[in-house]
């Protein structure tokens, strides 16, 4: 399931003032999740001209944190997809020494390795 995010280009240098902030250099690209701008507590500006504090990821440094919306310009929408799964499953190598289970994982007496009971009709 993909989600939309907004990207912004940094116009002015910003040095971190608090622990939750991220430092910015002109030209950095920042990605902000669309949901953070739709949150009820964000009411300053809109995605194209943010005026309040935004929370996002600096794509250059991979830092996440808050930054002033007035220091950036709107670039556009980016669709973020979840990481793709591998198209194949990696096979598990055989257990060294044969199919012996480690101590404590032995099947109960009278049971086969598949879990069935041994009987006279085997």
Automatic annotation (TrEMBL):
Keywords: SH3 domain. InterPro entries: SH3-like_dom_sf (IPR036028), SH3_domain (IPR001452). SMART domains: SH3 (SM00326). It comes from the Eukaryota. Residues 57-66 have a biased composition (Basic and acidic residues). Residues 3-77 form the SH3 domain. Residues 97-122 have a biased composition (Low complexity). Residues 42-67, 82-122 are annotated as: Disordered. This is SH3 domain-containing protein. It comes from Coilia grayii.
């Amino acid at each position: 399931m993909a989600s939309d995010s907004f990207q912004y280009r940094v116009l002015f240098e910003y040095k971190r003032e608090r622990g939750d902030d991220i430092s910015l250099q002109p030209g950095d690209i920042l990605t902000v999740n669309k949901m953070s701008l739709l949150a009820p507590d964000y009411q300053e500006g809109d995605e194209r001209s943010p005026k309040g504090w935004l929370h996002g990821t600096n794509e250059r440094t991979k830092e996440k944190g808050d930054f002033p919306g007035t220091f950036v310009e709107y670039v556009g929408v980016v669709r973020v997809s979840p990481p793709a799964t591998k198209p194949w499953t990696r096979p598990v190598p055989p257990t060294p020494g044969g199919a012996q289970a480690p101590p404590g994982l032995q099947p109960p007496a009278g049971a086969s390795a598949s879990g069935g009971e041994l009987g006279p009709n085997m």
